[in-house]
Amino acid sequence: MRPTIRDLGEIELLNRLKKFMRYGQIDDDIAEINSSNKSLLINTDLLVEKIHFSDEISNAKDIGWKCITTNISDLICSGSENIISFNVGLVLPPNTHWEWVENLYEGMMEAMEEFGGEIIGGDCSCGKEKMISITAIGEKNSLRLHRGNALPGDYIVSTGYHGLSRLGLALLTSEKLPSEAQISPQLIKRAINAHKRPYPAVNALQALKQCKPESTNWRAAGTDSSDGLIESIRGICQSSNCQAVLSKNSVLKYPDWPEDSCWDEWILNGGEDYELILSLPKEWAEAICKTLKSAQIIGFIKEGKPNIFWDNLERINIQESSLFRHF
After folding, report:
1. Angle at Cα 267 formed by Cα 239 and Cα 75, nearest 5°?
2. What is the DSSP string of 172-196?
3. Packing angle, helices 202-210 and 282-291, rounded to 10
4. Hey, what domains does the chain have and what are their CATH numbers?
5. What pTM does this model have?
6. Which of 69, 180, 303, 312 gives a 20 to 30 Å CA spacing to 29?
7. What is the pLDDT of residue 327?
8. pLDDT (0 to 100) of residue 321
9. How many Cβ atoms from other residues are within 10 Å of residue 259's Cβ?
10. Which residues of the chain fall below pLDDT 70?
11. Is the dihedral of CA 47, 48, 54, 55 positive or negative?
């Protein structure tokens, strides 16, 4: 018989979770971080069952991986690749099986083995739906990416493909596709993996730091495309009080992506692709595109009220129906 969380109780639940942390790490109500005298970056994400994840399309290990990697992506798009630790908060229905919780943490551990960090504690409580709150802590480095750092004359760089995770979600939920275009087995596998096991753009951040021209200072704007390519650019424009002009011919499409124009909506507004979207001085933008094979200049920044245009002067309106809504 598989024990449930009700069967275990809080104390036994915490005792079982101790194996995922350093000895003594959760013996009191606060987390101690032993680090050097450097600035830290802290990020918290809350994932709610049936809104951010579902057991119907992802197993607990995949959910655990995604909880950690989405937080890491937020640290990376702020310039931090030195991941220190994670605090985990859980809300669980009493009939949740311990096996689900154990697999959730094993998925988290797999992500930390790949990208760094450790679990240092957290809290748990009872609720009608599962909820997972992750607070991630990283070290601030020489490059502090911020949405508000863009300046007119910058080039806009995307570090990879978009639309894959949105396609993966559609495939997993048997959602009707934009058209009856043929999808290759390779694209199907890539899309499902992109949705279940997102991979934060740590290699892109490392390449960005390594290729910075000596004549350029560390000023750069950045975010990730977790809310969609266009929405990420809108965020940069809003924070930097500027406009963006994008080239339709420069937006990357996965090699096997259907040519039908109706599929472009998922590229532009699909979300959960976790690529870096950067606003960089011209020389730096060109340098990262030479260094990182997947990087592409897709537009530029100009003065003006925060708006986004195609290079034919057509204004890009974000499709509200395509955006993820938290409420």
Report:
1. 45
2. HTTPPPSS-----HHHHHHHHHHHH
3. 120
4. 5-139 (3.30.1330.10), 147-322 (3.90.650.10)
5. 0.89
6. 69
7. 38
8. 45
9. 9
10. 27-36, 318-327
11. positive
